[in-house]
Design brief:
395 residues, globular, three-stranded parallel beta sheet, 16 helices, binds zinc ion, two-stranded parallel sheet, mainly alpha
Length: 395
């Protein structure tokens, strides 16, 4: 394949005329000039009165502090990733908040990701609650997830949506604070739309797609999925639970934040499968599968999303973006080997399942897959399993 074609991989589709986003991105809307909403948002972002927004943020945080009594001021869902580490910096160092940190553990930790999580707990000196589903269930869900939503990560999508809300309800901590806003790169909303809209089913709609009840079947029972249930609307209302995205209140800049966190707190980037950037989803060894399956269904993966953001921010030309996309989106990730191992599936069966998940625009289209030309810098195996293997070997 020509890696310097400087054009979209699937020319039969409509792509944003500014960035590299195709029509198969969920929720994408192009204006009459063919410009996607994320590109429009990035123009709005420059004109927003961020000082005013920051005042609103301060008011929200002051109010939460005033009402907290001896309880925590807020919940910060953390993975140890770039965004949640930055959230902790802003909330504890700038605003003096006392958060309860909450982690839904997908248990696909990379070694760097595990380090980043533990390091952030130490550096910010915060209290922490984590929930980890059992390994056999994670493996069964990975298989069911591909069949159900055409992506390996249902347990992660559903868990990060449900678990922090469960903790909010049970511990009576109403305010949840997430990181990047929806307007930044998803194209699903814009910076000028109303803030403070909270939706308990946000993660179900955005990423999990199927409710726990819809995942039941075969070797997965209602009882297995109890931890993935979002609290009821009544419970949410009774506890007054709601949430904000910091990125709606302060100017969000991935590159500068990453640099800052590396220098100040020793946060670590690492090589990522299926993209050229080294700082998103660092904690997840299976992120390559998440992105590769998106590519097989929709004709784009994470390199497309990151290149588009870089084009918007003036770091790449659109043509350079398309070159990077050609190199990374079609790459067969090493994580596919781990997926086949934990599910007992075969590669042929995997591709067959993915063929059935294609969007109409991709049916009958030749979707190139490239072999990786080198081994990933970090081992694609959950770090807890690596540790166990290491000590088992010495017995
Ligand atoms: Zn665009």
């Amino acid at each position: 394949m020509d890696l310097h074609a400087r054009t979209p991989l699937f020319p039969h589709m409509q792509y944003c005329t500014r960035c590299c986003v195709p029509e198969t991105l969920e929720g994408v809307v192009f204006d009459e000039m063919g410009v996607c909403r994320a590109c429009q948002s990035s123009e709005q972002k420059i004109h927003i009165n961020w000082l005013e927004r920051e005042k609103n943020l301060r008011a929200i945080l002051d109010d939460a502090k005033a009402k907290a009594g001896n309880n925590y001021d807020c919940i910060v869902p953390i993975s140890g990733g770039k965004d949640s580490t930055f959230q902790l910096h802003v909330l504890t160092k700038i605003y003096g908040m006392k958060p309860l940190c909450v982690t839904f553990s997908h248990n696909w930790w990379s070694e760097s990701g595990w380090y980043n999580l533990q390091n952030s707990l130490e550096k910010f000196n915060v209290d922490h609650v984590a929930f980890t589903p059992n390994r056999a269930l994670i493996n069964r869900l990975a298989k069911r997830s591909i069949e159900g939503i055409g992506d390996t990560n249902w347990h992660d999508h559903a868990g990060v949506g449900a678990f922090p809300l469960q903790v909010a309800v049970k511990w009576k901590i109403p305010l949840l604070i997430w990181g990047e806003g929806d307007a930044e790169s998803s194209g699903r909303s814009s910076y000028t739309e109303q803030l403070n809209t909270f939706d308990r089913d946000y993660f179900l709609k955005q990423s999990a797609k199927l409710s726990p009840t819809q995942m039941v079947g075969g070797d997965i029972t209602d009882r297995d999925l109890y931890p993935f249930e979002v609290p009821s609307q009544e419970e949410i209302e009774a506890a007054g639970v709601w949430g904000i995205h910091l990125g709606d209140y302060i100017f969000w800049d991935d590159e500068r934040q990453t640099e800052f966190l590396e220098e100040t707190y020793g946060w670590r980037q690492t090589e990522m499968e299926n993209t050229y950037k080294r700082y998103k989803s660092v904690e997840d060894v299976m992120s390559g599968m998440h992105d590769f399956t998106c590519y097989l269904k929709r004709g784009f993966g994470r390199a497309t999303m990151q290149a588009s953001l870089d084009v918007r921010n003036g770091l790449l030309t659109r043509e350079e973006g398309f070159d990077l996309i050609r190199k990374h989106d079609p790459e067969r990730p090493e994580a596919l080997d781990y997926y086949l191992k934990i599910t007992g599936s075969t590669e042929a069966k995997f591709y067959e399942t993915m063929r059935a998940k294609r969007l109409p625009q991709m049916i009958g289209v030749d979707i190139p897959v490239n072999t990786k030309d080198h081994k990933n810098a970090e081992r694609i195996m959950p770090f807890p399993e690596q540790l166990i293997e290491k000590f088992d070997r010495h017995e």
